[in-house]
Amino acid sequence: MKKLALFIIPFSVFIFSCRTTKKVQTIQTAITKKDTIQTVKVKEAPTVDSAALIKNIMGKVMQQRIDFTTFTATIKADYESASDSKSFKVYLYMKKDEAIYLRLVGSFLGISKEGFAVKITKDSVVVVNKIDKIVQYRSLSYIQEVTKIPFDFKTLQDMFIGNPVFINNNIVSYKAGGSQLSVLMVGDIFKHMLSLDNSDYRVLHSKLDDIEDMRSRTCDISFSTYENKSGFNFSTYRKISVAEKSKLDVWLDFKQYAFNEPLTYVFNIPKSYKKQ
User: DSSP assignment, residue 140?
Assistant: First the structure.
């Protein structure tokens, strides 16, 4: 159960109990080296029109980013691995750049109850296991160890809000076709294929693949069912797949959410709980 509470943390970094040997299946065709070579590449000395187009595209993507002071949500979460699958409810509370709180409610030992409470700050993670009555204190690197993805606090915030992550200016190719536009960028750790709606530049799909030949990490995030209730285009349904040697799929269905309202949640640690 430990890994259950940590996969919802990023794109649901909470799924503690998952070790699989499934072959990686991506939401759309994986970006292989061959795929990258075949993509229409931007010339080393791009024309003024090409450079201006790319700048315009990324500018509009960044305009879609959601800014906030507080955020709360009730999320129906499902996860599936080769050996297990579960459904549970997540209550999320965020104060920008300060703290992320999560409560996991599900069926534990046949009884529906709160199983975990989590507090994440810029440098620490506290996990309260209400099933076994223990509390764990870890550094933020604990999430990186569990997910094998270099998450920092701001990246976790963006994951929950639905902002694109691991964005950089090193765009090596782009391609427009039909209703979608694809942009491929390469960073220090990942190559990132971003698929956008060609009409309003909403993010439809984000695919991260390792730069290193010796590693095979991949992360797929799809965004759908957008709503605009608070002046933001907010994706209320997402699928996240993370894999290296094992694979985990997570579905997040945002049932309720609110921006910039006072947070009322209080994170408590029972004194009787054993510390780890």
Answer: T
Would 272 be classed as within a structural domain?
no
**Average pLDDT, 10 consecutive residues per value, the chain (276 residues):** 45 35 33 40 48 80 91 94 87 96 80 84 93 93 77 90 88 85 88 91 92 82 93 93 85 96 93 92
State the total domains in the chain: 1
Question: What's the domain range around 166?
Answer: 3-257
User: What predicted TM-score, i.e. pTM, was given to this entire model?
Assistant: 0.78
E strands, the chain, in order: 3-8, 12-16, 70-80, 85-95, 99-108, 111-120, 124-129, 134-139, 171-177, 180-186, 190-197, 203-210, 218-227, 234-243, 247-259, 274-275
Residue 55, domain CATH: 2.50.20.10
**Is residue 276 situated within a structural domain?**
no
